[in-house]
Amino acid sequence: MTVHARLSIMLLLCLSLAVPALAAQALPDFRDIVKSGSPAVVKIFAEHRVGSGSRQMPDLQDIPEHLRRFFEFRGAPPEQRQRMAMGSGFIISDDGYIVTNNHVVEGAESVLVRMIDRREFDAEVIGTDPRSDLALLRIGARNLPALALEADDDLEVGSWVVAIGSPFGLDYSVTAGIVSAMGRSLPTEEGENYVPFIQTDVAINPGNSGGPLFDLDGDVVGVNSQIFTRSGGSIGLSFAIPSSVVRNVVAQLKEHGRVTRGWLGVTIQDVDKTLAESFGLSRPRGALINQLSEGGPAAKSGLKPGDVILRFAGEDIDTSAELPHVVGLITPDTTVPVEIMRDRKRKTLKVTVGGLDAEDSYALSNEIDTANGGGRLGLVIENAPEDALQRFGLSGGVLVRRVISGSVAADAGILPGDIITLLGSTAIKDISAFQRAVTKLSPGDSVPLRLVRRGTPMFIGLKLGE
User: Fold this and answer.
1) Which of 113, 257, 357, 386 has the fewest Cβ atoms nearer than 10 Å?
2) What tens digit of pLDDT does each residue of 221-240 get?
């Protein structure tokens, strides 16, 4: 064997020994996080009493005495069944405050907390916030191990994270993974969207709900809340509530027992490529206002339908889903700067944010500013019927009867039945206003068109040919 061959073999042997060592050094070690964090993690049992399904007995006092014996209950009282919900949580102060998910304790008659040393405590529900799916509990104990809700601003996609909880009742299980995305929007059944979720591929299963999500420094960066699954178990799509949201909610629940969050009173939509061009934006971005709540904070502060919100309280708004996340964290009655695009010009307004209590719901007014459209666009129109205007709360508009195939309107996605209320910055009251507005358009123009479709207002970008 030549010297060269012997050297090659030795090099390969060295590499084979070095690669596993290098790989081991690259992987994080979670042992210290688990040792320091586990004592503050708790298992939560929420008891619900459910009737056995037997028929409700009538009030005997309302029955004549000679018939009462036929209704008198004989035997044991009606059976009550118990349903036990189970989840996780963690202690946030040494005097017994505990954070978990609202859905873990919602509607419970009693809540029991079990610690890692097997001690058990009855818990008082201090307050809940269904909009963020958070709940604050308290147990009667002192000098408890606690976890701090640290800032999550440094968390990035690709960062390692660790979860501790009780999936399927398996106490104090540890799973790890990476952050898959930040600021995920998961609207509730009511269409509300106040939580910019942290998406991870950490294995989260039923029973993990309410448990902490740690970064590699051992800081709590989120509360595990929900998963996306087709099987009932983890498929690598789990979502945690960021610590910034948790801190805000916990502080309010501690002080008031309820949560009031910032409210603007608008409906919004994303800006696509055509709309961006029509508004004078270099790229699709921002939250486009298409409706205002009558007398709401936005309307009082001078915002208008057609404004594109680019920055709110110093935070960039890249998509419409980001706006509720920012507004919801602002203390009501706070005045903040809002940068908008209006009439193709940037403008900054001072907006005073309103408040939305935990028990409140709101509906936007159907009153809408009117708008315009035109025959060059490939539309067959008529004045909107009075009953339609009344039904949708409109003061005027034109009804689209037909859209010519291959026309500007067809390319933009306008449909028969749409009521056009705005073209560019011009309000449309009737056909004459529509026609006047269209004659002002020049070849190559890009303009926003506002319409009402089945009661829902929206903007569509309209681009004329050269």
Assistant:
1) 386
2) 999 999 887 777 788 899 99
